[in-house]
Amino acid sequence: MTESTDAWFAREILVHEEALVHFLRRCWPHREEIHDLRQEVYVRVYEAAGKAVPTAPKSFLFATARHLMTDRLRRSRVVSIETVGDFESINVLIDEVSPERWCGGRQVLKRLADAFDRLPDRCREVIWLRRVEELPQKEVASRLGISEKTVEKHVAKGIRLIAEHFYGGGGTRARARQALQDAGREPGHGQQQTD
């Protein structure tokens, strides 16, 4: 470097101090840290210029400010492990599945599989694509060559049949049917169906 770093810094960097402070105020939420941020930006720019003078000093100054703010944000989001101390003393819920829960879950899954297997073929296909593979209604309709309205009807019918099988008949069936009608899922044909 032919001139001193101090002279270069004063001529190329310090002239942008007002713009830098304005930039920091606009981007950094903690006003009380603006002065410290500005000083740290200057230190980083000065140290970098001591190694190699930037070709675009103003751009380098603002890029350094952005990087500094990013670094500070990253550091603020890191939680120190030392502050936690003894992990065993923390009341962490561990989901240990008891044999009863495991067996109960298996039984529920078996009942659900039985209900699913009893669905009519097309209905089962629609339910699988919509609820398991989570395909959009439009894609299911296109894949199966049916209308979107038909997809809706198969989904409603499938859910109703699974609920009836899963929860039994009787009053539950009527409540399930009424809930579907209230939700606009199953067309009410103007006649009351009896169990």
Mean pLDDT: 79
Kindly report the CATH topology of the largest domain: Arc Repressor Mutant, subunit A
Total tally of structural domains: 2
Helix content: 55-70%
Q: Total number of β-strand segments?
A: 0
Our count of helices gives 9
| Class by SSE composition | mainly alpha
Q: Any guess at the CATH architecture of the largest domain?
A: Orthogonal Bundle
Termini, distance in Å?
94 Å
What is the name of the CATH superfamily of the largest domain?
Winged helix-like DNA-binding domain superfamily/Winged helix DNA-binding domain
What fraction of the residues are assigned to beta strands by DSSP? under 5%
Element-by-element helix/strand order: HHHHHHHHH
Instruction: Provide the CATH top-level class of the largest domain.
Output: Mainly Alpha
Could you explain how this protein is built, in words?
The chain is mostly helical and 195 residues long. The chain folds into two domains: 5-77, no CATH class; 106-182, Winged helix-like DNA-binding domain superfamily/Winged helix DNA-binding domain (Arc Repressor Mutant, subunit A), CATH 1.10.10. 66% of the residues lie in helices and 0% in strands. It has helices at 5-12, 17-27, 34-51, 57-77, 99-117, 121-132, 137-144, 148-167, 171-182. α5 packs across α8 (148-167), α6 (121-132) packs across α8 (148-167) and α7 (137-144) crosses α8. The protein starts with a helix and ends in a 13-residue tail after the last helix.
